[in-house]
Amino acid sequence: MKTFLGCQDTLNNSRGCSKFLGESLHIVYRINDFYSQKTGRYMVAGEIASFLKSSNQWKLLGPSYDQKTLTQAQEHANAKKAVVAVYTSTSGSSHVVLINPGVLQSSGSWGLSVPTATSFLLSQPDRSFVDKGLSFAFGKLLMKDVSIYVRSY
């Protein structure tokens, strides 16, 4: 997180800082799915959201408002599989969050038990976090627009 926040301090262009999610998956899981050979860089959130919808390697677990989906997401992350939660607004903006190994955490705002997550929020870096509940990344009003994907191996 310190490196990510430092990136925000040194670059006026957040596109260079958008690499942290893709790099994290590459380093931790040895997956380079979010690196675009075409553009020569890691994908930004909107590109990742589009990629996940069409990828044969990523499976949609379901929506974030379903406890079964949230439980499965945590179980897959604990089994060392890559899991991400993707928010896409009606205007097309997106945010992608990595689900970490850990335990489900009770979320008062969501009224559900949510998986442990890491969020690199480019637009508001001070709201970025490591190892907090998924509901810290997405408010209750956004949870209906969050889908969770797992990488099949």
What does this structure look like?
This protein is an alpha+beta fold and 153 residues long. It has helices at residues 2-10, 19-29, 45-54, 67-78; strands at 35-36, 41-42, 58-63, 83-88, 94-99, 105-107, 112-114, 116-119, 129-133, 146-151. The strands form three sheets. The protein has a six-stranded antiparallel β-sheet, sandwiched between helices. The chain has a two-stranded antiparallel ribbon with strand order 1-2. The protein is globular. The two termini are 28 Å apart.
What labels would you give this structure?
4 helices, six-stranded antiparallel β-sheet, 28% strand, 153 residues, two-stranded antiparallel ribbon, alpha+beta, 10 strands
Give the topology.
Elements: H1 2-10, H2 19-29, E1 35-36, E2 41-42, H3 45-54, E3 58-63, H4 67-78, E4 83-88, E5 94-99, E6 105-107, E7 112-114, E8 116-119, E9 129-133, E10 146-151
Antiparallel strand pairs: 1-2, 3-10, 4-5, 4-10, 5-8, 6-7, 8-9
Write a brief structural summary.
The protein is of the alpha+beta class and 153 residues long.
Which percent bin holds the helix content?
A: 25-40%
Backbone structural class:
alpha+beta
The first-to-last residue Cα distance is: 28 Å
Please give the radius of gyration in angstroms: 14 Å
**Shape estimate:** globular
Mean pLDDT: 87
Strand content: 25-35%
Across the major sheet, the strand order is 3-10-4-5-8-9
| Count of DSSP strands | 10
Number of helices: 4
Main sheet, how many strands, which sense, barrel?
6 strands, antiparallel
